[in-house]
Design a protein that fits this description.
five-stranded mixed beta sheet, 13 strands, Rossmann fold, about 30% helix, four-stranded antiparallel beta sheet
């Protein structure tokens, strides 16, 4: 690994020198192309993020389409500020847009990365003047070798531009051998089989039984819907704690329905909320039939963010949602079904048809409320910073 990053550094120096020369040349002649700045945040090694920014910029057209700015002093200064934001769990996109306006930037490409069981990348291209999202993409990679980074850059750029192997959907679609995918057929799949349509990580929950008592299999979100995913579809982020890899919050049941309608229109699929029965079945590991008190364990701290470990009692700055997938999953490979945020279900809570079901507990509630057996409810129009959701397909 050390040799790999020495190679990165050498490549980076060469790329930086080339871009610096281009910047100097651009400074001596009037700019006749839109200016684009590419930021990469969340990669543990800064030089890897810098190198990826150059690759993405080149893939987006480089000097042929844009005046790509990746290594100027102003960008370097902003990158340092962004890394401070990333370490504190907060990347302020609004400030980025304003910075772009002040520096005559036309397009801003923000690439964010998180390392869970693999490296996950999400890219958003924003028109600075109108503050409109004009393209986005998602990609995952098992490693960060130079070939892997080139694949990441190529896939993200293709999705952003809606060509090549990418998807024109704003959620993007993972492509090539670097991403995990499975066929649409569910026949013979066991719990946890991966499926990555539209860049959304799903796991298969196998059905059980036959005849009238059969339980059908279905795909469910491996993680709660993140702020990056919501932003890509809705063009805004209502969450109290802003971080692209935290679950989206402050979304009502009605808001979730609007998100689903737009997502399905763009992807041509039929994503939906889970029924309460599906949610409970998945939380218990599907056909594995777990009997744990929480989703994956009898110890809440192992699988759930709740008021006892989120910093709520102590008034800590960590008192908020947390990045998805940072606790251990249940036996079906699904994360955060206990804790982090309450998850909306499709069903009415009771025969009064006034409240919709919420399941799973949250960072703000007690460990007891994170039990799989615990039910909660809210009116469909209610939103708060403890409410989120996950997707089911079909």
């Amino acid at each position: 690994m050390k040799k790999v990053f020495v190679l990165f550094f050498a490549l980076l120096l060469g790329a930086a020198a080339q871009v610096q020369a281009e910047d100097m040349q651009a400074a001596s002649t009037p700019a006749d192309k839109p200016r684009m700045v590419v930021f990469v945040v969340g990669v543990e090694q800064n030089q890897v993020g810098d190198f990826l920014a150059i690759l993405v910029g080149n893939e987006l057209g480089g000097g042929d389409r844009y005046d790509i700015i990746t290594r100027t002093d102003a960008v370097q200064k902003k990158l340092k500020e962004l890394r401070e934001y990333e370490r504190s769990g907060n990347v302020n996109e609004g400030e980025l847009i304003e910075w772009g306006r002040q520096n005559n930037v036309s397009m801003l490409c923000l690439v964010t990365s998180i390392h869970l069981d693999e490296y996950m990348f999400a890219a958003q291209l924003t028109d600075v003047k109108s503050n409109k999202l004009v393209g986005s993409g998602d990609y995952s990679s098992a490693s960060l070798g130079s070939a892997d980074l080139k694949k990441v850059a190529g896939a993200l750029a293709a999705q952003i531009q809606g060509n090549g192997g990418g998807s024109s959907s704003s959620m993007g679609q993972q492509a090539s051998s670097g991403s995990r995918a499975s066929s649409r057929s569910s026949g013979g799949k066991s719990n946890g089989a991966a499926y990555n349509p539209d860049g959304i990580e799903l796991v298969y929950v196998a059905g059980i039984g036959s005849g009238i008592m059969a339980t059908k299999g279905f795909y469910i979100g491996k993680y709660e819907v993140t702020q990056a995913q919501w932003q890509a579809i809705m063009g805004s982020n209502p969450s109290a704690k802003q971080d692209p890899f935290h679950p989206v919050t402050n979304v009502s049941w009605n808001d979730c329905k609007q998100f689903l309608a737009k997502l399905n229109e763009q992807t041509g699929r039929s994503y939906r909320l889970p029924t309460e029965a599906e949610w409970v079945y998945a939380a218990n590991g599907g056909s594995n039939g777990d009997t744990y008190e929480y989703a994956g364990s009898n110890n809440a701290d192992e699988v759930a963010w709740h008021d006892g470990n989120s910093g709520w009692y102590s008034g800590s700055s960590a008192s908020h949602t947390h990045k998805v997938g940072t606790k251990q999953p249940n036996s079906a490979g699904i994360y955060d079904m206990s804790g982090n945020v309450w998850e909306w279900c499709e069903d009415w809570y009771d025969s009064n048809h006034s409240d919709r079901v919420g399941r799973g507990g949250s960072w703000y509630g007690t460990a007891a409320s994170c039990r799989v057996a615990y039910r909660n409810s809210s009116t469909p129009g209610y939103s708060y910073n403890i409410l989120g959701f996950r997707l089911v397909l079909p």
